[in-house]
Specification:
The chain is an alpha/beta fold. The longest helix is centred in the first third of the chain and has 25 residues. It is 37% helix and 24% strand. It contains eleven helices and 16 strands. Strands 1-2-4-3-5-16-6-15 form an eight-stranded mixed sheet, with helices on both faces. It has a four-stranded antiparallel sheet with strand order 10-12-8-13. The protein has a two-stranded antiparallel ribbon with strand order 7-14. It has two domains: 277 residues, Zn peptidases (Aminopeptidase, 3-Layer(aba) Sandwich), CATH 3.40.630; 110 residues, Alpha-Beta Plaits, CATH 3.30.70. The radius of gyration is 26 Å and the shape is elongated. The chain starts with a helix and ends with a helix. α2 packs across α11, α4 packs across α11 and α6 runs antiparallel to α8.
């Protein structure tokens, strides 16, 4: 009797599994993606937590690259490891693979921040933290890759998944991967990038067509004077005073020379003197900062004006100035047609109330390099949850995400990759 009962339970179980499998086969592609995103959610959370606990700095992500490659191998997805040192590129061929190629990109480097969160997946690497969500980006793309590989007989074309190192450090891993041919053979018709966004609730997404994020340049200024006793400034060339005038004067580049219609930011975040004390004027002061704008022509003009003003001002005060500009990421431009199509697709996938328009941002992203080469769309994934206190800003020591956002992240990426013309 017990054997009959056990057989009945087994039969019922197989019956229901068969129904679920049959139902899945005949689901539309969107519903298939949503079902798989839900099914893989716990696995992707586990991946994100592993990455979060083992962060590596820009261009030092050796173990992260190996981990990504190992995950792809587990899924059976063909991939290449070692592009731009630690980068990984996976290739998923659907039906008629030569019809078109779509690229998806995630970055995986961390920041030099000591994590303050008390969570089970807290960073194990002292002074290094995933405070910009790159762990979530990579976990989402691994999930999307797994979904797309599972559904490779349900879409046409080829999907190229780009796992990129070094977004946080110039010249940016994107520029290096492009130089090594990641956008060639064949050139993708479009590329999508996704970034976490704490102000937006988990389950939502945001888009902006056209210019979206600023260029980013690093400024390194050395002011040279003649040091001496603080009680006898007449015998010195005061490098501190020159620096104070210089920082104030350079703000005119933004306030008096820039068209208000072209947003710009000039910020100095670091000042160090060589020597110096309460009663010692140092020989030299070093200043570091950033310049950002939304217009490439103005960017070039501003570089010339800053350098000329700084050198002239220091000379007028009997000192000298070395003004070095390290040109960084360009303006990030979201292709209008592609982005509007992607936003419409996001509405189809998430619902109209879950998709919003984004404001301009003066932050910068090396995804901009891709946008200079092929049609690109860089959008935001909501990761906030005020009720749980998950509201910390990017690049802070308490940054975290609402992990249910990963289901949205992987599913939406997969849906955008499959796309509709």
């Amino acid at each position: 009797m017990v054997g009959i009962f056990e057989n009945l339970i087994t039969f019922v179980g197989i019956f229901f599994i068969s129904i679920l499998q049959y139902s899945f086969i005949y689901l539309p592609v969107k519903e298939k993606i949503q079902e798989l995103a839900h099914r893989y959610q716990n696995d992707v959370i586990h991946i994100r937590r592993h990455l979060h606990a083992h962060p590596e700095l820009s261009f030092e992500e050796v173990q992260t690259g190996h981990y990504i490659a190992a995950q792809l191998a587990t899924y059976g997805i063909p991939h290449t490891h070692g592009i731009a040192q630690n980068g990984v590129v996976a290739t998923i061929q659907g039906k008629n693979p030569k019809k078109k190629t779509i690229a998806l990109r995630a970055d995986f480097d961390a920041l030099p921040i000591q994590e303050a969160n008390q969570v089970p997946y807290k960073s194990l690497n002292n002074g290094i933290m995933h405070a910009c969500g790159h762990d979530a980006h990579t976990a989402s793309l691994l999930g999307a890759a797994r979904i797309l590989y599972t559904l490779r007989d349900h879409f046409e074309g080829t999907i190229r998944c780009i796992f990129q190192p070094g977004e946080e450090k110039l010249p940016g891993g994107a520029s290096l991967m492009i130089k090594e041919g990641v956008l060639e053979q064949p050139r993708p018709a479009a590329i999508f990038g996704q970034h976490v966004y704490p102000p937006l609730r988990a389950g939502m997404a945001g888009f902006r067509a056209g210019i979206y994020m600023a260029s980013c340049d690093e400024l390194y200024v050395t002011v040279k004077g003649r040091g001496g006793h603080g009680a006898a400034p007449q015998e010195c060339v005061d490098s501190i005073l020159i620096t104070a005038h210089l920082i104030t004067a350079l703000q005119q580049i933004v306030s008096r020379f820039c068209d208000p219609a072209m947003p710009s930011v000039l910020t100095f975040g670091k000042i160090n003197s060589t020597g110096g004390a309460t009663n010692i004027i140092p020989n030299e002061v070093k200043v570091a900062g950033t310049f950002r704008t939304m217009n490439e022509k103005w960017r070039t003009d501003a570089h010339k004006k800053m350098k000329k003003m700084a050198e002239g001002l220091a000379k007028s005060m009997s000192g000298a100035c070395e003004f070095q500009i390290v040109k960084g990421y360009p303006v990030l431009y979201n292709n209008e047609v592609l982005t509007r199509r992607a936003q419409k697709a996001a509405v189809e996938y998430l619902g109209k109330d879950k998709v919003v328009d984004l404001p301009l941002r003066m932050t910068a992203e090396d995804f901009a390099w891709y946008s200079q080469v092929i049609p690109a769309c860089f959008y935001r994934l909501g990761t906030g949850n005020p009720e749980r206190g998950i509201t910390a800003a990017l690049h802070t020591d308490t940054f975290d995400i609402e992990e249910t956002a990963l289901e949205t992240g992987m599913g939406l990426m997969a849906w955008l990759a499959v796309g509709r013309e």
